[in-house]
């Protein structure tokens, strides 16, 4: 079972509500003797945290991670690594509205009917705040993979579609991604995206996004057919992120439109190494990594909390209207980039360890 | 761990290779006292089996399921239900080609590099033949759900995109789906689809497809946040099917292009019942079923085994060419319809049982 | 996988080292809407904590539990319950000895060889301090069982053998158990036990113990054959407690000496209810609860840290001697009573939920 | 979850009823490229099978294992290994008695109350016939361990207590074990044991037994603290065997009577290697293997099916009597020897793979 636990050999368990005293996670199964410091983790935390630009929520959180166990004298010990992140800027002003009304597009209604009780403050457990814990776990996974596979391992995410606006993926540039508030990989798109997002926010509306994650330096052979295929686990991992509604591996949904010739990636021996002439498979064949870059993308729906008034019902089942004020991201998809990277890093490490167990 | 096991409380384990003596599966965690006969299962088996029309593989398999345990005097006993399906029409003529060459788009290369050994006959374990076991398990899940939830429970799949050809989903008709070889839901598309697929086959090529699965009669509250969200488990289930490269829940990838107003489904009290004005969420909010129809779709890539010649390498790493003869589906997506239904039925029953455990 | 996680549907994950900043646990799968307060948990914590009498370690720990999530307005919400216990009285004086030498009977040697690194301070992760987290989880399990099954549910443990001294189990008295520092159930044994244990301590030695746990009010039908039998899970639970080397269910090892007639418990209809004439089975038949009291016992080996000098090797593999000073329990078995109760409560709740899922 | 599945990385799932058409198991997670033949498995099957001497059940079963998948050209492929054993000598004469009456000491009562239905023929799923599948899985585990660890790996079991009769364990002789129908390790006990067991059988009674399993050649470091400790998993494995009521690791329950000095095993450097002066720990410290022999023992209660008349109730709850005729073992413990070996082999391989994953 895995209600709040993700992973098989490298596993993390998250806990905490948006407006409780703290959130946190416990990472289990981490290999021992890996150098690890709070700093390694904090770097990724900062990339996800809100309040960084006018394009994300204005909630001010330091999102400072504290390690409580599992690290001794700067190295992992193989025992569980517990991390805690205190909630600082949890404002209660907007409670009364969402306490009694179900926000359309949110899980207010389903949580209430499932459990008969819910911590409504800031969305409680259903809040995207939980994803901070994932980023912390993912930072550990990256650190371990960099140690086990070497520096050639790298995972990079970017927003490739911002609402109705795409970008030219051929211009993918990692330096650009790091230096714009949209994680946009294409310098030429920046200006238009900025104008567009400001207009969306001004209109009291929101927009969706598509995020693409690329992982390179992955060895051949990761993935455990049939029901722990690498792509199956990636799909599960990405779909578990708040607001995600679609997941593609490689050419994804578009493979439906291709012919067999156009889709399958031919193989060539180039200077003694197997090379593929294309990567429609996204680096995964039969659920097993092929040595090509792993490419996965996912769609994040537009923020459901918007200023514009919407119809809904309240706890008593009566018809009412709602307009959600407060601090929200006009496009939650933007902050999903480091989360997607984190989840894929965790899946890859998990399969790296599984492969080592069975096949080395 | 779950290499060849799917599910948590309702679980099935599959085994067997395409050209071995038999394939089969063991269903564990099935509730007791559910009337179940071989016939209940055979019906779904027949919908998946090859050789039914000129649009699917000409391999002739009776795909007759035998129940070996777990059923006594016509009822389940709560103990594991083992099922076996003998391989009958396993022809060996094409072995020599695929024994030494890696078919592009197939898992030949990755299986060989992962395990250092593989049963290449008919694709061995990587063959879609494994999915017959899933259909058997899914038929049991359906039977149990019909008993536990009642007759209002129903799951129906259809091909909604055949290669470059779509159909009008507004014409969705279950009777039509049952009576055409494409599982096409729209009568008006049938003729064009037939012509198209014959042309594809004649050209020695293949095409992809998009399959949509709709499940109705689902109670509110199924789904276990955070890492066993209903949509997360559906994504994992569908992505584990051979040749699937993308999964959508509800509006899926298209949510990226919508505004917050257009995407989130407003709620109304209609005659004392909560009703949603639309279903972009695909019946799932925060990973929990909302009581709306569950809608999921997935893309199946075009059959990789095609007559047209392609470039590849052989086991020794040398460049070579390959043209795969033999009995293949011009569009493997078609036979994926009952498989998708089966997987979603299993996920739903699993979550039904989990919900009963924690929240009833 | 379950390195640091116990349970299936009701699960807890523990973390933390003996002399780190804190220890804690995350309880997952707890049913919602169960009244739960810190106080409910603290009561059991106090029964386990050290420094209560001259017969236990003099380490002074308040062992105050803080709930960080999963409880809202005094009730569980169905989301994970994180608890933290800060380490207060962690003294470092004895570090240098155990840093470089492997204490016989301890896990110093095996942890070091397994992981290549270990937090040696106070035994680190291998310390019995971890069991405080189990008691916290167990207190929640008891609270839930009392709510779900009713007040008839009760679990009580006692020390029935203290080193070479037994007691008369026919005098089992719960009030007595609560009011002596040995959890001894037999008033007549108290004086002798006290003298004996003082002598053991004075001699710089230690002694073992046998603990018996009795759970009553258990419904028939809990237990999931074959590999999650109730007794199998109890055995795993009790054997996972530090220093436990043997586990019995009912008559346990003694069944080997009985005849078939003497061992199997005959059944009678007494006033319309099935009653057993004896309870050699310990309330479990075929891995399933029979409605009788669950009776399990386990042996705790004598404390390995003793004043008397012993032979061992150091980290460099050289022969040396060791005499472990510091604050130790002359009989660690005594404090194992609430831990055993906790583990059995968790197993029972887990199986209660599983049974509800499959068979209700 | 693991109703009918055992293990984590090396896992097997068993199915089948005593008088159904067949029983079987699916082994998953087996490393690839291990030479494996039906013969390797059959050897152990023959050691467990009934009808071999007058001291075991007269049911005549060939217990011939057929491998249906996962082995190709004499080697494992890393895919699931399905095995089937047909039931041949399933006689129905005794059905009517046990159909309506609950045999004391058996799981008839609890299965019926749990599931509301049961296959009563020959005990159905609760029959010890299921253990044939475990022996098959264990034979694979042994083969893999012999390949991975080398020939120094060995696991041997023996009956060390037959009812009221012990034996001198100092005379432990593997050749003797192989050549007597009791798996007795001490030549001097054979004659007395034979007389005793014949008397027990003649009296229409039965007796219990204690089995000891010794595994040598085990590397240091196997075991995953806290909740997958090696001893915890062994306890779970052995307690899951039919009729087992107690499990000891090393000195086991007897450690309760020892002093700290007498119990903890001192360590010495002998010619550059760490050696323990005794093995009360049974080769496990802190849940991790120490490199010493793993020693575990377990008690098997006396056969509950006996000729002598006993009191019980029937399905309608009415008082009645029962005398179980048919083919039974006077001491089921005898045939538990290869089963215990099998379970411990599976646990060891599982932990070997887990250790490789996390710590190599």
Provide a compact summary of the structure.
By secondary structure, the first copy, chain A, is α+β, with helices and mostly antiparallel strands. Chain A has helices at 38-48, 95-100, 108-115, 131-148, 174-178, 190-202, 230-239, 260-263, 336-359; strands spanning 5-6, 11-16, 22-28, 65-67, 71-72, 75-76, 81-86, 154-162, 165-166, 209-216, 244-249, 267-270, 273-276, 284-285, 288-289, 294-300, 310-313, 319-322. Chain A is globular and about 65 Å long.
Descriptive tags:
alpha+beta; homotetramer; 5-stranded antiparallel β-sheet; 360 residues; 9 helices
Largest sheet of chain A: 5 strands, antiparallel
| Share of helix of chain A, binned | 25-40%
Assess the beta-strand content of chain A as a share of residues. Answer: 15-25%
| Strands side by side in the biggest sheet of chain A | 1-2-3-7-4
User: Secondary-structure element order of chain A, as H and E?
Assistant: EEEHEEEEHHHEEHHEHEHEEEEEEEH
Helix/sheet category of chain A: alpha+beta
With helices defined by DSSP (H or I, 4 residues minimum), what is the helix count of chain A? Answer: 9
- The radius of gyration computed from the alpha-carbon positions of chain A, rounded to a whole number of angstroms, is 21 Å
Whole-Å distance between the termini of chain A? 28 Å
Largest interface, chains and sizes: A-B, 112 and 111 residues
Question: What does the overall shape of chain A look like?
Answer: globular
Number of strands of chain A: 18
Oligomeric description of these chains? homotetramer
Q: Uncertain segments of chain A of ≥5 residues (pLDDT<50)?
A: none
The chain-level mean pLDDT of chain A equals: 94
């Amino acid at each position: 079972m895995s209600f709040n636990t993700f992973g098989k050999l490298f596993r993390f368990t998250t806990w905490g509500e948006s407006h409780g005293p703290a959130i946190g996670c416990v990472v289990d199964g981490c290999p021992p003797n890996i150098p690890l410091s709070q700093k390694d983790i904090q770097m990724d935390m900062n990339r996800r945290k809100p309040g960084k630009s006018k394009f994300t929520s204005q909630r001010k959180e330091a999102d400072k991670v504290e390690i409580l166990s599992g690290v001794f004298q700067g190295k992992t010990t193989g025992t569980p690594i517990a991390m805690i992140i205190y909630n600082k800027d949890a404002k209660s002003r907007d409670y009364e509205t969402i306490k009694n009304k179900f926000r359309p597009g949110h899980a207010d209604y389903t949580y209430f009917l499932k459990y008969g009780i819910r911590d409504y403050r800031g969305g409680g457990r259903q809040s995207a705040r939980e994803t901070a814990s994932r980023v912390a776990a993912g930072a550990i996974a990256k650190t371990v993979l960099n140690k086990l596979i070497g520096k050639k391992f790298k995972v990079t995410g970017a927003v490739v579609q911002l609402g109705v606006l795409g970008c030219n993926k051929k211009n993918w540039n990692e330096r650009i991604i790091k230096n714009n508030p949209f994680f946009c990989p294409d310098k030429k798109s920046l200006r238009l995206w900025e104008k567009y997002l400001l207009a969306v926010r001004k209109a009291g509306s929101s927009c969706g996004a598509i995020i693409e994650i690329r992982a390179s330096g992955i060895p051949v052979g990761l993935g455990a057919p049939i029901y722990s295929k690498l792509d199956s686990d990636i799909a599960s991992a990405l779909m578990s992120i708040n607001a995600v509604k679609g997941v593609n591996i490689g050419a994804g949904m578009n493979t439906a439109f291709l012919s067999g010739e156009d889709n399958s990636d031919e193989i060539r021996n180039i200077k003694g190494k197997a090379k593929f002439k294309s990567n429609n498979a996204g680096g995964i064949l039969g659920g097993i990594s092929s040595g090509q870059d792993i490419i996965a993308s996912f769609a994040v729906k537009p923020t459901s909390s918007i200023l514009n008034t919407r119809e809904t019902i309240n706890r008593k089942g009566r018809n009412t209207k709602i307009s959600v004020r407060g601090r929200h991201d006009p496009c939650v998809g933007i902050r999903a980039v480091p989360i997607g990277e984190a989840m894929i890093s965790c899946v890859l490490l998990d399969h790296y360890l599984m492969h080592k167990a069975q096949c080395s």
